Amino acid sequence: MSQIGLLVVVVGTMIFLALQAGDNLQARAIPTGFDFVGDSVGIQLSEGIDTKPATGGRALWVGMVNTLRISVAGIVVATMLGVVIGLARLSSNWIVSKIASVYIETMRNIPLLVQIIFIFAVIQTLNGLDEDTGPISGWFVVSNKGISIPRLFGLNGSFQWFAFMIIGLVVAWWVHRRRVQEQDATGAVTYPVLSAVGVLAVFGIIGFFVHPVMGFLGPVFGAMANLLGSISESLLQLLLALAALLLAARRIRNFLKSMSSGGGRAKLVDDDYFRMVFAGVGALAAVLVVFAWPGLSSWLLNSGQDLFELLESRFGSGNGGRPFDAKKPDLNITRFVNYGPAGLTLSPSFAAVFIGVVLYTAAFIGENVRGGILAVPKGQSEAAGAIGLSRGQSLRHIILPQAFRIIMPPMGNQYLNLAKNTSLAIAVGYSDLVQVGTTVYNQTGKTLPVVAIWMLFYLSVSLTISVIVNYINVRLKIVER
Amino acid sequence: MVFTTDSTFAESVPAPAAPPKTIKLPPREWIKQNLFSTPFNSVLTVLFGALIFAAWRGLLSFTFSHERSWDAVATNLRLMFTAAYPQEQFIRIWVCIGFILGLAAITVGAYAVASRVRVHFLAERTMVFGGVIGVSGLLAPFSTSATVWYIVIGFGLLLPGIAARTQIDEEATLPLMGLLGIAFALPVLSLWVIPYGHHALLDGELIAEPGTVARSSSGPWTVVLIISYALYLLVAKVMNPSAQARLKRAVVGIWLVSPLFLVFIILRDPAFDYDHIASVQVPLFLAYAILGGALLYWLTKPGVGEIGRIVAATVLLAAIGTFLFSAFGFGGMRQIVRILALALAAFALLAPTFSGEQAARRRYVRVWVITVLGLVWFVTAANSPSTVATLSDWFPGGFSVTLMVATFTLILSFPLGVVLALARTSKMPIFRVMSTFYIEIVRGVPFITVLVFFAIMVPLFLPSNMEISQIAAVVVAYSLFSAAYMAENVRGGLQSIQAGQHEAAEALGMTGTQKTVFIVLPQALRASIPPLVGQTIGTFKETSLLAIIGVFDFLFVARTLIPTQTFFLGSLKEGLLVVCLTYWFFTYNMSKASQRLEQRLGVGER
Amino acid sequence: MTETAGNPVRDLSQAADMIMCDGVSKWFGDFQALDGITATIKEQEVVVVLGPSGSGKSTWIRCINKLEHHQEGQIVVDGVELTNDLRNIEMIRSEVGMVFQQFNLFPHLTVMDNITLAPIWVRKKPRSDAEDMARALLERVGIPEQAEKFPGQMSGGQQQRVAIARALAMEPKVMLFDEPTSALDPEMIKEVLDVMKELARSGMTMMVVTHEMGFAREVADRIIFMEEGQIVEVGTPEHFFTNPTEDRTKLFLSQIL
Questions:
Q1: With contacts defined as CB-CB under 8 Å, which chain C residues touch A265?
Q2: CATH numeric code, A30-147+341-476
Q3: Which of A118, A237, B421, B433 is deepest in the core (most CB within 10 A)?
Q4: pLDDT of residue B455
Q5: In this predicted complex, what is the ipTM?
Q6: Which chain C positions have a beta carbon within 8 Å of B353's beta carbon?
Q7: What is the pLDDT of residues C159-213, one digit of tens each?
Q8: Which domains does chain B show, CATH number per domain?
Q9: CA B264 to chain centre
């Protein structure tokens, strides 16, 4: 009873607030609605896949790509640095472990925003790019234009190469399994990991020199695009609705089935009735959404079709050349050419945010790594020694698997924090989603929709990271038990 | 030894909680074992030793370079820490500082947390400090005479340190509070002798007058220090134990209320309209105190039963109604009426939990009257116009706004976090789903989006007759954000409580609320103190984001204001370095304190 | 009551029913923990429940206090049937005292607060009365000087005696003991058993799950033997230890004696 009362109160308050907001929005003539996504805006972005986006939606898309770019790069580098720091913290060498702990205490205790602004201030007072003042002249130049390094970039042929490598992965996996089986059966040392890597290398080399290797995929993707094009919008609506209803029905049926016996009834808690109701209501809501916005279905169809058409063109004729190339940074450019065939220059704001989040997060990751390794009971390494394992073996088979399991969940948290912290880019003008969003709503006045897009984007990033980390956790547990 | 890849790693891992009980080794042996045990280790030592010297030298050259204009910071210190608080009202700030330090001294005295420090520990610190100063003198780009001075001072510290380390008995200790007193007294004394602080920037004009800072602060600091130390001595040495015990309870309450009191009475100096108070606030207080008190006295009678619950629910509905009515034109109602109605509803709902015999019921009513008094006083003080004239709409700025936002966020988000955590672990799915939904959404988005949302959007969600200042909206944003994280910490504490505790409470016939209030929450909160302190540190660091939305905090001053002043055009890094150091000083000490607290709790009664 | 109370000489056939279980069944998921338990416990009777571990003894005793919910059957305590109604549960619980294997004292409260908390807030007693009673109870369980200590500062035997005092402070009509000595060091078992014996002699209705055969033989009016969620055999201690009828009982006794 009290629950229903509370629900009424909360829903009532929310409706009230929404009405209030609607009134106020109208009274102050603040526009809402997502039409700005398609309208043209005059925005100039400092960097990204498109520095002069035609529409608001395109601008936000550029921002999202920038956020993802810096997050992924940051996660990779911060993990490497963090692991090194964590191990250094455990070193028996007094100087090494002291340096690591001073590093950690400094980084953790200064707000990231202050660090980013400070790094940005330092970068801005460095020498000019054309003075080429090193650290490695011509190859690795730190200047007031940012950080310039050589870059490996994909050409048109890279799509075919990646497709080929997927086949290579499957083959390598198969070889690995066969080798492991052989080793288990005969006891002979068969080097399963080495063989798999070898297979991958062979595939990589073949894919690099033989063109076009996967050209036949082009027509296949074309056919897929045509197939999607032929599906009518209402058919997809029907299919989606059916899928939602079926899922809910299956869930409810599972609960109902367990109600038939006394033992089954014991398993049901109050929550399960709530879950049943929730599944039903959720499915109905999904159906409602699917039919209320036919645009959703047609958008799904269109983007699917677009994707396959794009793939068709990528695998089509004339796109089978060399997959990769690399270039040194161009030291006398005035604007950054970060895309296309050229060296890589990380703009000052990118460099500031990147260095900031990497150094900051690495300190936390280092603490996680140290904590995880310390948390493995001492008895484990003693037991491993007692059954005659060497130090390396005990580390690989006993200590690290357990430490890894302890380290992984907080690691996921740190990755999440890193992704969220890139939003501080707004302070130094790196065009991430938040910064672009601010520009967009300053121009169009559509604050609410932009904030909604922000939240949706970051929530899906968070969700993705936690799904990946959870998956790894579950895998680790199964492997271990 | 936990694990070893090669001999480099993890040779001697200190157990995290254990006190650093170093085994006595002669210096030569120690160096050999810890730095040059293997060839690889020796290489590492040389390599990283060189790295340390390079970094140290770099930092010193950066700090003492001729390009640095530290005048920019020295002149603007006042701006960075109090922004535009008028100088003639500084006595108010001194009263606040004195109050807080005095209260801290009383707390230390009452809780008898003051321990003793080993002389050897002090000697080692002095030696290290002396060594650092001496080497810095060699490394930094000083003039020759300055270098000599540095080296002399370094040796001046190093030698007594070595003497104390070798001559004095290992078990000898000194009282911590005495040392702290001296440590505070020395810089304060130096204020009387050395004219620190050469500048004051007033109305954009640089007045190069030496000693302004020292002259204006030597008197107040001395008074504050003497009062604080006297209070400590009074409480720790003079008072008898029973008075100390009573003081302990009072101190906690004073700490909770003092931020409101200091900000809204001392710093803000509200211009109370006494006629208005007599005609509106006093009757309001009396009405709520007497009628509400009578209602609660009745509700706490044992055996009121079902009808009591219905009455309490009615009060809750009426309280929510007072908020909703404003949408339908009944907007003239005072805010305090609504707030008090909500408070009354909460007390009424909790009444069955605390029902009992006469004395218990009277105590419950007394708590209610005090709550009403506090709320009425606070709302009145907050709503009265301030007599302190400042440039911005919110009187503190600089570092003080940072401290203030952090404090208020802590006060507001803690109860909210506890409620969210209870809801998330509740048996009722609706509570749980809503709370989980809220917590996960807030934790999934970056704080800057929440901040922007609140700074711009909150006014839109309020009824047309309610207004909220920007800083209040910001504090609300911080609190709502921080509460989600607090809730997760408290949830961890809740889950750490064994099932047996719940069962024992249930077996004694306690209601769900009684179980939560008397058994579960006290234990859960104690278990979650360390992560809660961590979260508080996080919030404190997060206050730097105020600068992004244009609040006059000290990062904003350092980054945006100072480099645009005519005298200090482009002096950016100096201010930022001071900001870094200030944040570092506070967070580092907070986290060290929390580690110590964790150890104390770990070995405490459990 | 005479000194020999608790031995089969006591005639309880005229006493009123205190606990009545009729066909009580309980499942944990697919596992059936209780299978049609039917038994009656009279006022002032001392019943000891024996059985191998996992036989459902603890589950049954916890069902009587509503710490577990039974799915089938009927439990009546002092004339009140246990339903899922919240107030009914709270009423029953304050009439039925429970002592746990792991003591479950509240670690954040002193011994005095542990004992007086429920009388003050559940029974609504004045604090001074509750404290007087707590002192009397601590005297009775033999640790009057420990009132201001915290549970963490006491030995296991002392903690368990405080737990008994805490349950008695609610002035219950029945006391349930769930393996009260299993978590104790051997030298502390006696001090707890002595308190329980004294309690039995004073006429308290008691239901005890234990592995202490000496206690069962000396104090019990009846012994109930359970296995796999069912009651296998019921009888006086004399009958049970010297002349059991069921094979499963004999097997159990041969394993432990």
A1: 27, 71
A2: 1.10.3720.10
A3: B421
A4: 75
A5: 0.85
A6: 121
A7: 999 999 999 998 888 999 998 888 888 888 888 888 898 888 888 899 999 888 8
A8: 1-65 (no CATH), 86-242 (no CATH), 272-384 (no CATH), 395-606 (1.10.3720.10)
A9: 18
